## 1
Amino acid sequence: MNPTIAMITFRGMLGRKRALLLLGLPLIMLVLAMVLRATGNDDLSTSSHVLQQFGLATLLPLLALIAGTGVIGPEIDDGQIMYVLTKPIPREVIVLTKLVVAIVLVTAFATVPTLLAGLVLTGTTAQLTPAFAIGVLVGGVAYSAVFVALAVASRNAVTIGLLYALVWESLLGSFAPGAKSASIQQWALSITDALTEASPVQSTVDLPLAITLLVLVTAVGTLLATFRLRSLPVASAD
């Protein structure tokens, strides 16, 4: 972890137009939660559906994509990353710093709003709210690692990330059981399912497998990003 790189990255992320997206999406969910509460449509089933479909399935991957690609992708595209790479800083430290920043942003703009929306909707009934907050947090770590790796490996990281989140996890996951099982969303939902007594929350992936896959994907994403970053100076020099 490099404090200087972290500070510069935070400043870049929160000072760009991305900050509007980081703030806008959580606000929509909070407003929706308040409207449902005010109209009396805040039963356990509805609350579970909102937290799962809006928080875990939509808000989380989109914010993780914005944060994960944004912490390093623009620097690679405009060449600013070369300034960092010329410093005597190990590549793994750069990647870990960028990943930590992405995770902090996802926690602040996805996990906390999910927690607040859950408290507005149903409080701590059946431990639904803390369960989803933890599920979003754990899923956010894995998503961030994947999207940071994509940003280092490809200039089309945002497009690829959207295809994965919207097509693979959402569309194909609704029709193909195999695709649903190979989904960060479902792995995070498995964590949530284990932590709540609410019957509407059900995952298709067993808890031990979900935990193993979440750890594996996070580790592989971090390692791939580090490996790819090490090759960038050579490619630039050529």
## 2
Amino acid sequence: MRYRGEAVTVIREAQAYGMWFMAFEWMMNADAARNGIARSEVPAYKVALYGGLAGEALWLGSYPLDVIKSKMQTDGFGENMRYKSMRDCFAQTWRVEGMRGFWKGIGPTLLRAMPVSAGTFAVVEATMRAIS
């Protein structure tokens, strides 16, 4: 049995987390360079801010893929199946809902992304500083 939505999930994960870490690392390194300090000296509030902004970048860059993943994973089976493939799901979403169909629910996702990612990066960075 195939896993419905597996391909789009793998694509979304690779793209989203690549964006997440790239955005965070870029902001941290840019701050350290701009202020002439070591990365480990970037203040905790900035670490949290950059983590939160990285979370926003993650979702802004990957949300349409997440919508398609969710549609495919909640699709029926057999004669109740609406989408034949990931490509078909994209095409039907575009045809029926237009561009808006790829962004439904983005508001709550972005509201959640900032504090979750800020906390994640703040804890990870604090832990890395403590053990080094």
## 3
Amino acid sequence: MSLFSHEIENFWQAAFLGGEIRCREGKLTLAVNPALSEDRRVMLLATADGHTSAVMTPALADQLDLGSGQGLTEQVLRQKLRDGQVALHGADYVFYFSEATKRVLLEEAPVHTLRQLTAADEAVFAEFQAAVSEQDLDDAYVELDHWLVFGAFEGERLVCAASMYPWEGQKLADMGVLTLASSRGRGHASRVVRAISRHACGLGYQPQYRCQVDNQVSAALARTAGLSQFGTWEVISPDSAESL
């Protein structure tokens, strides 16, 4: 039985198995789908159970000579991608709340130092943004005009903020979180992640937390906040030729 909701499982199955299955070999499945968008024309998903799913356009699969023959492994697949000059963007960890953890989350009482932010918080949010680096702002992608925004306060000062934006046509909502350097290590980020996730779950959305696999601080935050790793997700890099 899966740790995660049917909505999460169904989303990823549709993304990777919605086309024609060209190959199943051990723990590797390769599918082709002509409906993939330009920036998703090659994707790999390695789930926590050790299985890897790959999907790409039929034209690219043919170009890389990825037929239905025997002996295809993840190592061989990745080598064919490299030989074909198909570069993958750095892998993301993908985290969700398990169904059991989500039930606990929904029963938690609100924390008095946390609250939802609105347009009325423009001044306090601007002060918060001014206190962090441009790099941190870019990496976290936390914006006051996102679909859902929560913040943690020390007195009247906003010291940590998280925002969410739903995926188009899906009940998944990505989140970003950012804490002032002077207020880190006090548990603000994990509490804000849980608060915004609780609110999103109450609206029928599945909170989704993603970070690069080399960002161990962010991955540790996800786990501390109670999220479980679903897998690692890779998509084609913008550096690959558009003709591929």
